[in-house]
Amino acid sequence: MEVSWVELIKLLISTGVCWTNFVLIDTYFGLPRKPGVLGAEVIGKTLEKMGGDLNGGYFMGNIVCSPDASAGTLMAAIFYYLLGFKGGLIATLLVYIGNRLCNDPGYAGTFGTFSATVIIHLLSGFIEPRYFIGGMIMAIFTIQGLYHVGASKVLGYIGRKLGMI
Amino acid sequence: MLYLYYILSVVISLVVGFIIGLPVEIDVNSFKGNLFFPTVFVALGLTAVIDILFNLNLVFTLLVGIFSPLFSKYVDLIFPGVSYGG
Lengths: 165, 86
What we know:
The complex is a heterodimer.
Chain A: H1 5-28, H2 38-49, H3 54-65, H4 69-83, H5 85-101, H6 107-123, H7 129-144, H8 148-161
Chain B: H1 3-19, H2 39-53, H3 58-73, H4 75-78
Helix pairs in contact in B: 1-2, 1-3, 2-3
């Protein structure tokens, strides 16, 4: 199967959009500041021991332990793909309930899902919603899959730059 | 013109929320609901669910508009948070 350049560029743009959306919203709502549950603290401390950043580690731990803007962006992309803008609104409600079940006030996930829905809707003329599903998977892979120590340093740096730590 | 029902459900939920005395200030670290969060998102989400499952009309819009602020008022009892790491 050959991959066209247009598809690849669309995927890369949607990756950038998703990455920016979830990192900025999660940072703004204080994910790097403190661990929400015990698991997030363990991940943060372990990453610090491995030579990473403690606050970036808390950020990554909080992503694992609760559906924040990262899961919200993915949910928004899938629901928008299936049901359109209405689907994004349903995803917002479901992510909010998921947040509350995970001992999280729910601001990061809910606003992340809603903003992702609005962004996907605005860009849907140029980039189809299916690219955002792939784009978000690529974006979360750069944080949670590729190189954890480096990712925690980048997230800690962004948190400090935005003055949220 | 279907989106008018979405706007109407949000407006009704805000008015009802104001009447039942939800706090206007937004506290990002609090588990209690306020006038805007999660009222607006619950209203929009429930309206979308009804839009897909049934058809939107004034009765459903009114019901969502009344339910959302009540949910928001008692959200810390429905989904209580535990204080940890603060």
